[in-house]
# Entry
Amino acid sequence: MKGEIQLVQLNYKKKHIKKHWSTRTGLKLLRVQAGIDHWTANFGASAEGHYKYFDETLPNQNDKERAAARREGRKEYIRYASAHIFVDRYKALELVPLDEVCFGANERKAGPLLSTLRATHSQYPGGNANLLCIHIEMCVEPDGTIHPDTVKRTALVHQYLQKLFPQLKDTYNRFVRHFDVTGKNCPAPMVKDPSMYKYLLDMTAGEIEINPIVKPQQKEENEVIKMAVVVYSDADLSVGYDLANEKKCGLYNRKSLANEALKINELMVVGGPMEGLEKKTNRVIDLSGTDRWDTRKKVIHYLGK
Ligand SMILES: [Zn+2]
# Structure
């Protein structure tokens, strides 16, 4: 498998959680106005893990809390929470049908920061983005990062949603961070570094390829140049420079010449042996002397001075 490029696939599965008053009420969205991106803030928990949490753990916890609060005659502490789609490194899991309301972004009492997402309903007075939005949760790695494959898959989820809801094709206006809606630090890595979110949206919009195929670099045809000077060491640099200047051509040292995809018609060699240079040139002009002074003498003679 070494060297094989793993392509990120959408791998979209539906596994709906049961209806419950604190997670999935079954209330229908008024319309789909936007997609809201989140992170789960739940380090190391997968999409499947969240299915279990929202299908079972949280409803049970809330039922118990409600019963206990009533029994004890105190205020109840309920966590209303849910999201439509959970994305991790391996799959995208739809927990709630996309035409239903989820509890994802309504913690701001004054209503959403974006006026386009301020919806009212008899059950939710005051404006509530949840009535208009599909919530997408990015799962988090054990170290608190969002895996690149999760980010890529989220872009694929965006594109999937854009096919279902063409109004979402206006990527940069129709996908927003939870942070943009209520000011919550979510998805935290993309609040801290907004360019990470832009990267996600650029992939959604097709500006950046989600699965770039790495092509083997094509061998370029050797560029042919008329003439050049090559020096052997720094000792010859000064005279090599003068020669190149006089002939109005390029100056290379041995190493830089070896690394260039060049073919040189006429190569003036200033210092050092001729071995290995025949591959680079059709004609060697040997100006190397026994030492730097001798080399300089040869160059001056060559220039006819
Ligand atoms: Zn959030």
